[in-house]
Specification:
This protein has 3 domains: 138 residues, Tetratricopeptide repeat domain (Serine Threonine Protein Phosphatase 5, Tetratricopeptide repeat), CATH 1.25.40.10; 72 residues, Immunoglobulin-like, CATH 2.60.40.1120; 67 residues, Immunoglobulin-like. 29% of the residues lie in helices and 32% in strands. The protein has 7 helices and 16 strands. The chain has a 4-stranded antiparallel beta sheet with strand order 5-4-7-8, with no helix packed on it. Strands 12-11-14-15 form a 4-stranded antiparallel beta sheet, with no helix packed on it.
């Protein structure tokens, strides 16, 4: 069985493991199934391996572990493969392993993402079966809803737990009160509270994000006891912490017994700027 799926502007061609499908309903062995960080995944690369080459190898190693019934270890391999390079086959394999381990909430987003691939009919039937089973197992407590964001591509978190794929995507929402948070660079994060129950299940969401104003936190220090004015507005004494628009501002330190009053022009930078500090220390100035 072959899957073609475009990621990062290139096509990755891999084969779904027949043994993986055959072993889906086997009994798992206990182990730690925590997903590795990128730093941990990079340590699994061999000398001279590219990220995509290492990901393909780890994915195959995971399949071999499945054949041995070592499902948690296989899950680690598949997760590591995805951290290094998003191979579509590894996405399916992560979802399948979570499904095998009865971690249905964790399985759902990976199965959902796999369905975006141009699968052959028999492949799609397998993934749809797993997905339908997940929804059946969770039908007393969850519903799946489509979450779209404006702009599209926002990262999503449910009750503070980050989801592996960006919007638009279908998300499992548990009955009760659930926070769905969308974040996108250059926009203000937004949290929508979804309240639902079996009688009133959650509905599809569209989360509209506002562009964030280019503000940044700053610290200003003047000689001890000096008044601090920023752009002509009294802001404190000796030291102040505040938030200012990114760009040019004027800081005035007032007169003290040991120093004359003086002004300084400052540039407030974005946090993403490599030179970011935004601490303006004039405490030792005596004019």
């Amino acid at each position: 069985m072959r899957v073609r799926y475009a990621f990062m502007n290139r096509i990755v061609v891999v084969c779904l493991s027949a043994s993986l499908v055959a072993g889906i309903f086997a009994t798992p062995t206990p182990a730690d199934a925590a997903a590795p960080t990128r730093e941990q995944a990079l340590k699994l690369k061999r000398a001279g391996e590219s990220d995509d080459g290492a990901a393909a190898r780890l994915n195959e190693e995971g399949k071999a572990l499945v054949r041995l019934g070592k499902y948690y270890q296989a899950l680690d391999k598949f997760h590591a493969a995805l951290v290094l390079f998003p191979i579509s086959n590894a996405i399916f394999n992560v979802g399948s392993m979570h499904y095998t381990l009865k971690q249905y909430e964790e399985a759902f987003p990976y199965l959902e993402q796999t369905l975006r691939a141009p699968l052959a009919p028999e492949q799609r039937a397998v993934v749809l079966k797993y997905r339908a089973n997940v929804l059946t197992f969770l039908k007393m407590s969850h519903r799946a809803v489509m979450v779209r964001t404006n702009p599209p591509g926002a990262k999503l978190a449910v009750n503070g737990v980050a989801l592996p794929f960006a919007a638009p995507t279908r998300v499992l929402i548990q009955f009760g009160s659930v926070d769905v948070t969308a974040t996108y660079d250059g926009f203000m994060a937004k949290t929508v509270v979804v309240k639902s129950n079996s009688a009133q299940p959650p509905k599809d969401l569209v989360v509209r994000l506002k562009r964030e104003e280019p503000y940044s936190k700053v610290t200003v220090r003047c000689p001890k006891g000096a008044d601090i004015f920023i752009d002509g507005t009294m802001s404190g004494f000796t030291e102040t912490r505040t938030t200012l628009l990114v760009g040019k501002h004027v800081v005035r330190c007032g007169k003290t017994n040991l120093s004359a009053a003086f002004e300084r022009n400052v540039d407030v930078l974005k946090r993403s700027d490599p030179a970011f500090t935004n601490t303006f220390d004039f405490a030792g100035v005596k004019e």
